[in-house]
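Here is the promised in-class demo. Please do not try to memorize the tokens; focus on the logic of going from shape to residues.
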């Protein structure tokens, strides 16, 4: 089972840690190096960076998750997007979150101090939505163990009780077919399965939900007419979700535009089929070793009880993570069956 990345990726190790950070394709590295050199020498070109490239990355991400570019805001970190949503909720609003959820989805609501944050088991999240719940916030795929949330059930329960939905797709977008338009808000860090540089993140907002957000960090880039937005208060905010943009790192987005284009060329469906087949091979191999993974069909596989083997794997040139005590292995387009067999060989001793 060959990789899908071809010559775009050339890992020096058996890299199985995309759930922590994805590898950059060569085209993204070249784009960042080119812009950095232009910044260093003053050569005419993109100069400090181009908004056209940022717009291309915005549109490409939108196509990958099934929403128009006008519904996508760009930024630097998921926690900033979540903080904007948290700041826009009325005092006393109830936010329902799964137990053990990634902290960037939790803390912005907690630090408000005047919101009612309630927790429920992931497999009972939909049942825990009740009248008065204002927002259900969860990850599409759990960081700690790769479990996939039943988002269909969560969305239906939220609709029944008039609650909005916020989905963090950081561990899903890029390998799991995902329709962002089905949820009021989605947030996605670009540096994992989207194989973008750090410093890239995306917020999607439905047209209705846009009215609920206050563009608290609106700078000149949030203006409808950038040329007329550099001094004084903005005359007019962007009519699209761009009014929620944060000022971005051009270096990061020049790389992101190339990374996202590559994913579009390959296709999420193909990446999904490739990664889940590798994960299934790994789960089967674990069973043969008498080890039991957290059940599921995710490309991220968590193995309880063997987190202490990370050091053995590292010495053998295999990169994995430990999260919540689990050994966490994540497969992506640049992995192959040989990678699966390598990690199993090390675990077998």
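The designed amino acids, position by position:
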């Amino acid at each position: 089972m060959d990789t899908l990345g071809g010559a775009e990726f050339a890992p020096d190790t058996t890299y199985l840690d995309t759930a922590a950070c994805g590898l950059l394709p060569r085209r993204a590295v070249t784009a960042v190096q080119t812009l950095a050199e232009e910044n260093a020498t003053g050569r005419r070109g993109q100069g400090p960076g181009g908004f056209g490239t940022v717009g291309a990355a915005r549109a490409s991400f939108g196509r990958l998750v099934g929403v128009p570019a006008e519904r996508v805001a760009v930024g630097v970190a998921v926690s900033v997007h979540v903080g904007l949503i948290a700041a826009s909720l009325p005092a006393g609003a109830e936010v329902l979150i799964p137990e053990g959820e990634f902290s960037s989805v939790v803390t912005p609501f907690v630090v408000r101090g005047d919101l009612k944050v309630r927790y429920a088991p992931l497999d009972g999240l939909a049942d825990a939505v009740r009248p008065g719940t204002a927002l259900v916030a969860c990850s599409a795929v759990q960081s700690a163990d790769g479990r996939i949330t039943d988002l269909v059930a969560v969305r239906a329960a939220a609709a029944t009780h008039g609650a909005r939905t916020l989905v963090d797709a950081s561990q899903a977008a890029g390998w799991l077919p995902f329709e962002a338009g089905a949820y009021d808000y989605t947030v996605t860090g670009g540096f994992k399965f989207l194989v973008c540089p750090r410093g890239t993140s995306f917020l999607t907002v439905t047209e209705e939900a846009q009215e609920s957000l206050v563009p608290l960090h609106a700078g000149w880039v949030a203006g409808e007419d950038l040329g007329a937005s550099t001094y004084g208060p903005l005359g007019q905010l962007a009519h699209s979700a761009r009014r929620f943009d944060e000022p971005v790192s051009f270096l990061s987005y020049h790389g992101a535009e190339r990374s996202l284009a590559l994913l579009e060329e390959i296709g999420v469906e193909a990446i999904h089929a490739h990664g889940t087949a590798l994960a299934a091979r790994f789960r089967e191999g674990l069973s043969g070793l008498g080890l039991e993974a957290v059940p599921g069909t995710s490309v991220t596989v968590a193995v309880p009880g063997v987190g202490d083997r990370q050091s053995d794997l590292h010495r053998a040139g295999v990169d994995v993570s430990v999260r919540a005590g689990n050994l966490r292995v994540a497969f992506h387009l640049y992995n192959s069956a040989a990678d699966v067999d390598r990690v199993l060989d090390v675990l077998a001793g």
